[in-house]
Write a structure and sequence with these properties.
The complex is a heterodimer of chains A (about 220) and B (about 325).
Chain A lengths: L1 E11 L4 E12 L4 E5 L6 H9 L6 E6 L2 E2 L5 H5 L2 E4 L11 H7 L13 H13 L15 H14 L4 E5 L7 H18 L2 E6 L2 H7 L2 E5 L5 E3 L1
Parallel strand pairs in A: 3-8, 3-9, 6-7, 7-8
Antiparallel strand pairs in A: 1-2, 1-4, 4-5, 9-10
Helix pairs in contact in A: 3-5, 4-5
Chain B lengths: L2 H23 L13 H36 L12 H18 L6 H29 L3 H25 L2 H11 L8 H19 L2 H7 L3 H6 L4 H23 L5 H13 L4 H26 L7 H19 L6
Helix pairs in contact in B: 1-12, 2-7, 2-10, 2-11, 2-12, 3-4, 3-5, 3-10, 4-5, 4-10, 7-10, 11-12, 11-13, 12-13
Classes of the chains: A alpha/beta (about 220), B mainly alpha (about 325).
Amino acid sequence: MIEIEQLEIGYRSKRKQTSVFKGLQASFQSGSLIGLIGDNGIGKSTLLKTLTGFLEPLHGSVLIQGKNLATLSFEHKATLISIVTTEKISGFNLTVYDVVALGRTPYLSVFGKLMPNDIAIIERSLERLGLASLKNIVMDELSDGQRQKVMIAKSLAQETPIILLDEPTAFLDYTSKHKLFEDLKTLCIEEQKLIIVSSHDIDLMQKYMTKALYLKENNSFEVK
Amino acid sequence: MKKTQFIGYVSLLTVVLGLLMLADLSTGSVNVFSIQGNSQLVETILYTIRLPKVITCVLAGSALALCGLLMQTLFRNPLAGPYALGVSSGASLFVAIATMLLTSIQISGLYFFGKSMITLFSMVGAFLVTLIILFISRKNKSSVTVLLVGIMLSQILGALQSLVEFMSSSNSLKTFVIWGMGSVSSTTLGDIVFIVPIYVISIVVTYLMVKSLNAILLNEHYAANLGIKISMLRIKVILITAVLVGLITAFCGPIAFVGISVPIASRLLFKTSHHTHQITFCLLLGACVMVFADLICQLLSAHMMLPINTVTTLIGSPVVLYLLFKSKFNMQ
């Protein structure tokens, strides 16, 4: 599903490039929940940004279903990988339904009109995360846990085989964390998705994940 | 929003706009209903004075509201607008410079050349300020800070404009001052023929961006992840804003508070985030507000024209204040 080959990640500006991590080698299959574990600043977010295509690899490559991520168009990438970040989405009258519906963006015409097929997928995604009763609520009125779920529902509506989550447990209490991971685990198994979750909550991750990628100091890493 | 609901609101706004336009056409220093037997005079008053003015109101109000909406969406800042963030001031300064250059080289007699030069300068001024605001809003995420920077920018540009005015002749100074208060009554039908094609193209292009505008309401990262080319969208929005604000400012002067308040009011009234709806509502509501403002000017001052900015500010600023104090918008 995803093959990471001799990957060097970091930031590139006109004047210089800053390497965050290099020599990364790993491959993950669909139907698994992968934990991306490491201390703050080690490069978890940078790796997720690179896997989404926000950042270009400084060296090496990321292959998705055998295709090099760097050569894919914006539209194509949007149908393969979706991301859930910690950024808060609110304002502008956005309701839960609106946000989940935006997951359909890659499949719509320029006018953004939803077809019956899109509506069915949106309804199913809302249903899947238990948000059906909240669909007309504006985002501003939700709790952090609910917001997180809405963004995951958006990713489901986007119908990508790969979902990345950056620190999804950051704002959640103990029970919600476990509930979230149970949901993610079920999604992996039932929908055969590859879900990669970054966190530094090792104990929690160990309970649910199929495999983990540990990022450590001095560009060393471990997959187990 | 359901389709029937949308059609209902659009019909309602269209009817209101139609009535306001009729009311505005029939109001003025001369009561056209009392003139009998002189149809020539009535025709002159309606076609050469009032009709161009009403059409200008519709064009200016809708265009500025549309620019406000585009800026608010692109910057994800409900407090953005062409006047509040200094875009209109940028256009004004460049109009002042163009006017001074044209009078000093004595070619202002060539009507269309003069108008096109002034419009072009105005658009360039609007474009430069929009670029600065984009740069600042990408560095600084707080809506309120961006607004403050915009206000400072307007002040600086205003001071520079005073400097230009100070150096210009007393004749052009008078034109400047009146133009600076905002006026919809100096456009002719010829000007409108010049404005309409640019206006229509900008609106068509905006409707073609609906999907991208919807997606960017999440934020730039999410929009990119949904397959939107953010840099393309940014360029298009900035160009449309600069072209429309430049165009309207060149002909009507800087019009206050329509651009910022109409999209806010439209969101509060119609509770939708979808841009097909928002664009349509803003166009209609913007036109209504501007025609209404002109109507008020006519009613309050029978023989002298009250500057339209006085009225648009009085209508628009309470909406912005309401948002600042009451709403649940995330102002971070």
